[in-house]
Amino acid sequence: MMAPVVRRTWAPRGETPILLHRGRWHKKVSAIAALTVPAHRRRVGLYFSLLSDANFTATKVVQFLRNLSAQLQKPLIIVWDRSLTHRAKIVNRFFQRHSKLHREFLPPYAPDLNPVEMLWGHLKGNPLANFAPTDTKALAYSTRYHATRLRRRKDLLRSFLYATPLFLRPK
């Protein structure tokens, strides 16, 4: 649903801000992302993909992994949650055919251990807070814009990793 995350805001005294949005409208923008950390730990990267009015199926997950491995062209260890799409047969076959890709699963029901969940929480609670899009195109555009800007914030991307007890700590 496209109801905005409502945050406090400043307004002139006596002029309460009004946030208009559509209720009971179930259109959406689905997202998938990867935070990358090379072996030397100096840089953190962000790769993401968005779909309007659709879910990420196992086929779309494989397509994302194929694009990610083509971009990075190095062995990868994928650490992700236990979503059904991540454990689907087509995804398993993809990993069997690509020996440079390995995967590890996070414990079940542990979004607090997933740095990508921290990333989405930051986007929803900060740049997209109080944003009431009129359609999925506007939501996708704004999400893409802010996620792309976030790519340049290496300190912030690194903080998503540091916020979880499972990942890298500063040296």
Low-confidence stretches: none
Write down the CATH class. Alpha Beta
Strand arrangement within the widest β-sheet reads: 1-2
Determine the N-to-C terminus distance.
Answer: 41 Å
* Named CATH architecture: 2-Layer Sandwich
Topology of helices and strands:
Layout: E1 29-36, E2 45-52, H1 58-72, E3 76-80, H2 89-97, E4 101-105, H3 115-125, H4 136-150, H5 154-162
Parallel strand pairs: 3-4
Antiparallel strand pairs: 1-2
Helix pairs in contact: 1-2, 3-5
Task: Please characterize this protein's 3D structure.
The chain has 171 residues and is an alpha+beta fold. The chain has helices at 58-72, 89-97, 115-125, 136-150, 154-162; strands spanning 29-36, 45-52, 76-80, 101-105. The radius of gyration is 18 Å and the shape is globular. The model has no long low-confidence stretch (mean pLDDT 87).
Brief synopsis:
With 171 residues, the chain is α+β, with helices and mostly antiparallel strands. The chain is built from 5 helices and 4 strands, in the order E-E-H-E-H-E-H-H-H. Helix 1 (58-72) runs parallel beside helix 2 and helix 3 (115-125) packs across helix 5.
